[in-house]
Fold this protein.
Amino acid sequence: QALDQKLDEVELKTEKASVQAQEIIRAAELDPNEIGRVMESLGQMLAVKDEALHDVRFLVVKLKKQFNDSMDAFKVKLTDLGVPDTEFNGMGFRHEDLPT
C-alpha cells in the first residue's frame, strides 16, 4: 500500500509539473516546433517509465502471491508436525493483500 501511495503522489506531482511547464512555455514564447520535439521526446521517456512502473507493480503482486502461497505451505507443514493453528496465528504472520 505504501508503494501505491508513493506512486500516486509521484503521478500527481508529474501532472502539476506538466501544467507548470506549459505555462512557462507560453510565457517564454518559445518556438512551437522545437517545443513539440522536446515534448515528444519527454512523452517517449515517460512511456518507458510508465512501462517500468507497470512491470514493478506486477512484480510486487507476484511476490505477494508467492509469499501468501509459501505461508500457506508453511502453515500446513506446521500443522502436520503438530503445531496448533492458534500458535501459528500467534506468530504474527498475515497474508498480503492482493488486488481483486
Notes: Helices lie at 2-28, 32-80, 85-89.
